[in-house]
Amino acid sequence: MKDIFGKALVDFLLGTNDKDIITSTSISENDTLPLSYLFRDYNDMPIIEKKALDLSYGRILDVGCGAGSHSLYLKSLGYNVKAIDVSEGAIIVTKHRGVMNAQKLDVLDVMVQYDTILVLMNGTGIFQTIKSTPKYLTHLKSLLSPGGQILIDSSDIKYMYKGQEKHYLVENSDKYYGELDYYLSYRGVKEIPMKWLYLDFLKLKTLSNSVGLTCELMFRGPHHDYLAKLS
Predict the structure, then answer these.
(1) pTM of model > 0.85
(2) Mean pLDDT over residues 154-181, rounded?
(3) Maximum pairwise Cα distance, the chain
(4) d(CA 33, CA 30)
(5) Are 36 and 12 in contact, with CB atoms under 8 Å apart?
(6) Tell me, what DSSP letter sits at residue 167?
């Protein structure tokens, strides 16, 4: 990976950027991800993120911390927060903003237990595919302290196939509709495409139950999105 996501975050922090990140998927056209959005404070966060932060307790692991906005808010409340991301640039920015307990680390390499594990901003995306989801859920389960919780959000993107349902179900019956290829570019540089997974709530619940996790719907948002608690 080229870590152009991290490069964009560092540029914004230094005030040297004049471009935003461009994203697209295998079923959607180019869209703009404003860098300022990644540096938002609590008041500017979507209600699902606010709900997750309000429900957090104990020792907290922020998976895919990005610019560290969630960790920074929780730290301001006095929580012991560990922030991780696979982007080196993201960790540089997170530390610079005041979350010193931040590390470039894949969640599958974490071995310490936590009371709350946050996996936000379409968090199920890190699972990549339906096939690999049980591996991730099993590992996350092993990281929970007694009485611990995983707070994770995602979206049911079936609505994006409106008018194509019959074709999609016939031609792609072996593939779940939430499995996408995700593309990212910044200043004309394209990142290596990633696999990204959007899970509808019932599918997440089924997969969670299969590895011994309970799955509770905590909040349903206005844009086919939801927040779930796994324990």
Answers:
(1) yes
(2) 76
(3) 52
(4) 10
(5) yes
(6) H
